Amino acid sequence: MWNNLYSGFINGLGMGSIYALIAIGYTMVYGIARMINFAHGEFITIGAFVSYVNSDIVEQLRDLRCVLEAQLAVEACDILTKNQLDSLYENVALWEMYIKRGDEEKIFTLDKEFHGSLYKMCGKTVWYNLVESMAPHFDRTTILSFRCKETGRILKDHGELVAAIEKKDKEKAAHISQRHMSRYSENIDAIRKMFPEYFND
Predict the structure, then answer these.
(1) Which of 24, 36, 54, 148 would bridge with 194, disulfide CB 3.0–4.6 Å?
(2) Is there a contact between 139 and 69 (Cβ–Cβ < 8 Å)?
């Protein structure tokens, strides 16, 4: 009960801060110009996608996820049910289909769903919300990596991770999870070379 209450409080505080920031912008525009800017929300949304990629944030989030998701993989070996494993296998199968179709948007969505499902299946919603609160820069490098590196290696990691969890091989599951998160380090030079305009450092 207390864990859920704490989680709800942290989530509410985070979302409330975002809403407050937007509301302050509306208030200032109306207070000065005496008109409502209906495009204010769209500008805020666009801002999340047109800013430079902060590689320091990406690297720190990768390090954090490397630790968290290795622990998730270990815990998943003990608690995931057959239905939950089937759900992860279905995600991997869909990945394979959309790779063949070259549907980058679907691949990205399935990648987010795969990792999000692991957090939620292990009851780590606070961890998940923490990671997601810092995700925009990391997500952008993920999408860029799909465009300059072959995505089959990431799919293979997912499939091998689920198989290791199903076999309850904790050491292998943790190793695969850490290897998977290291893909950013493998890809970053290629991403910078192909998309230098996304970086300012």
Answers:
(1) 148
(2) no
Confidence of residue 103 (pLDDT cuts 50, 70, 90): confident
Measured between alpha carbons, how far is 183 from 10 in angstroms, rounded to an integer?
A: 30
Mind giving me the DSSP string for 5-18?
Answer: HHHHHHHHHHHHHH
The tokens of 33 are what? 């110009």
Instruction: Transcribe 130-150 into DSSP letters.
Output: HHHHTHHHHHHHHHHHHHHS-
C-alpha of 101 from chain center:
22
- pTM to 2 decimals? 0.72
Provide CB contacts within 8 A for 64, sequence distance 6+.
131
Among left, alpha and beta (phi > 0; psi -120 to 50; other), residue 123 is left
Tell me the per-residue pLDDT of 117-135, one tens digit each, with 9 for 90 and over: 999 999 999 999 988 888 8
For residues 147, 153, 159, 165, the Cα torsion angle rounded to the nearest 10 degrees is: -120
Q: What is the pLDDT of residue 11?
A: 63
